[in-house]
């Protein structure tokens, strides 16, 4: 009885370590945020926010809702028959997932599951999770291309230090490799996760933990690859929708810069948005990306010769938009009775569906 108990305790220990890491990163983020506010000047940032105005804020709130609709529609198209979801189902679920992701230190680990739980009345949890994962694959593919283009333009067009050039070149190479590997896995339908778990299980390791997990992963992969086989004509539309999501992000940055009187360069907006997307990926453990978003925006702003403090002001304004939609998301979470316990519930095994 003791080995299974230790096996079940290990994920909790790992979760505890992640919580500690998230707490440390959050404290460092708060320190960075304070530093940049003081370095730029609180009054200057407040003047920028006041200049942007409530009407400007309403515009970016509406723009982000359009982005939510885009991802909700991409998710709707990613659902495998015999199940189906409507936009009235996926839009609230995406808002809930965003709220969980940005406000809870480990929200990124639960946001996908929470989205699937939010539509559990319309689709079983395994089917919901596989459709979320399918949409995330399309999102990751377009995001990877977006980051590659952004890093390549940033390195080739602006004067940056050799060390940063090497780092960004490494990032470009890594992303290109991962995108290629992902495409090969889908085209060849490699059951990498389930086969790895099956191999570990046959070796006699973690048998209690993997008894149901290996079957769940096999079903999970089958649903994703089944989507590829059955709906190849949806690939381009979904990729187009995910691309529109990123383009709307560029439009948001461009509009904020325009309202702040920082010019109307689409190139600057593109670079700032690509760096913001990279920071979002790297520092998802930090709630609201506090501090790190300001650091990235300020760095890019200085590199592309924006006025002092514009980058920090941009990040603060966008943080206000994030807070607005997080509040909406938590209202939906409370209204629907979605709890952290539900968000961390294990996926049911195939014979339970």
Structure write-up:
The chain is an all-alpha fold. The chain has one domain (2-164, 233-352). The protein contains 13 helices and no strands. Helix 3 packs across helix 12 (310-336), helix 4 packs across helix 5 (125-157) and helix 7 runs antiparallel to helix 8. It starts with a helix and ends in a 10-residue tail after the last helix. The model is unreliable at 1-11 and 342-353 (pLDDT under 50).
Question: What distinguishing features does this structure have?
Answer:
mainly alpha, 13 helices, 80% helix, 0% strand, disordered C terminus
Task: Produce the secondary structure layout.
Blueprint (H helix, E strand, L loop, with lengths): L1 H39 L1 H36 L9 H17 L3 H12 L6 H33 L4 H27 L3 H11 L4 H24 L4 H25 L6 H17 L9 H12 L6 H27 L3 H4 L10
Helix pairs in contact: 1-11, 2-3, 2-5, 2-9, 2-12, 3-4, 3-12, 4-5, 5-6, 5-8, 5-9, 5-10, 7-8, 9-10, 10-11, 11-12
Q: In whole angstroms, how far apart are the ends? A: 29 Å
User: What is the domain total for the residues?
Assistant: 1
Bin the helical content: over 70%
Order of helices and strands: HHHHHHHHHHHHH
Query: Main sheet, how many strands, which sense, barrel?
Result: none
| Structure classification | mainly alpha
* Total number of beta strands: 0
Average predicted local confidence, pLDDT? 79
Low-confidence stretches: 1-11, 342-353
Question: How large is the share of residues in beta strands?
Answer: under 5%
The general outline is globular
Number of helices in the DSSP assignment:
13
Computed Rg: 21 Å
């Amino acid at each position: 009885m003791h080995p299974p108990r230790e096996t079940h305790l290990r994920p909790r220990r790992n979760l505890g370590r992640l919580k500690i890491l998230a707490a440390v990163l959050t404290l460092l983020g708060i320190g960075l945020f304070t530093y940049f506010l003081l370095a730029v000047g609180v009054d200057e940032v407040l003047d920028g926010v006041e200049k942007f105005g409530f009407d400007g804020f309403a515009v970016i709130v509406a723009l982000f809702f359009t982005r939510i609709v885009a991802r909700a529609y991409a998710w709707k198209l990613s659902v495998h028959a015999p199940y189906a979801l409507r936009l009235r189902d996926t839009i609230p679920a995406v808002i809930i997932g965003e709220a969980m992701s940005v406000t809870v230190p480990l929200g990124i680990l639960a946001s996908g599951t929470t989205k699937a739980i939010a539509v559990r009345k319309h689709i079983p949890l395994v089917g919901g999770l596989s459709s979320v994962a399918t949409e995330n694959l399309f999102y990751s593919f377009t995001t990877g291309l977006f980051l590659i283009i952004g890093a390549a333009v940033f390195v080739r067009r602006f004067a940056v230090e050799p060390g940063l050039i090497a780092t960004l070149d490494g990032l470009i190479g890594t992303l290109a490799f991962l995108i290629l590997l992902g495409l090969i896995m889908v085209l060849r339908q490699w059951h990498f996760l389930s086969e790895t778990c099956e191999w570990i299980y046959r070796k006699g390791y973690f048998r209690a933990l993997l008894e149901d997990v290996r079957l769940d992963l096999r079903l999970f992969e089958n649903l994703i690859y089944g989507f590829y086989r059955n709906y190849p004509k949806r690939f381009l539309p979904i990729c187009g929708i995910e691309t529109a999501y990123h383009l709307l992000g560029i439009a948001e940055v461009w509009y904020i810069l325009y309202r702040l009187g920082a010019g109307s360069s689409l190139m600057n907006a593109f670079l700032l948005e690509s760096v913001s997307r990279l920071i979002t990926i790297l520092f998802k453990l930090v709630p609201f990306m506090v501090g790190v978003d300001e650091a990235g925006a300020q760095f890019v702003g200085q590199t592309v010769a924006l006025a002092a403090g514009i980058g920090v002001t941009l990040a603060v304004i966008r943080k206000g938009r994030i807070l607005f939609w997080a509040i909406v998301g938590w209202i939906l979470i409370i209204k629907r009775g979605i709890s952290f316990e539900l968000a961390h519930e294990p996926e049911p095994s195939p014979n339970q569906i």
